[in-house]
Amino acid sequence: MKILAAPIEALAWFENGKPHPLRFKLDGKELKIDKVVTVIEEKLAGNRMLIFKCQSEIKGEVRLFEIKYELNTCRWLLWKM
Asked: Based on the number of CB atoms within 10 Å of its own CB, is 35 exposed (0-12), middle (13-18) or buried (19 or more)?
């Protein structure tokens, strides 16, 4: 996996204040998240972040990627793909 750290627009639903991502836009294309494999919370430079390891079918093959959600700023990042 390659580290991208690209800001993305994400659609998610929230339950008890925790996000559950459904899909996101990258370079004008919308990608559906088929499955969230794991969710980990980390602190990076004092910022609390949730790391979602996800799985989707992209161009006919199943791929893993990581997206991050910054709890303080409510921003989403495509971290690894």
From this structure: exposed
CA distance 30 to 44: 28
Cβ atoms of 70 and 78 within 8 Å: the answer is no
Nearest CA-CA partner of 13 in 5, 4, 22: 22
pLDDT in tens, 62-78: 999 999 999 999 999 99
End-to-end CA distance of the chain: 5
Rounded to whole angstroms, the Cα distance separating 71 from 59 reads 31
Model's pTM, two decimal places?
0.90
Number of Cβ within 10 Å of residue 24's Cβ equals 21
Q: Can you read off the two tokens belonging to residue 79?
A: 């971290």
Taking residue 27's Cβ as centre, other Cβ atoms within 10 Å add up to: 7
Residue with tokens 């494999």: 37
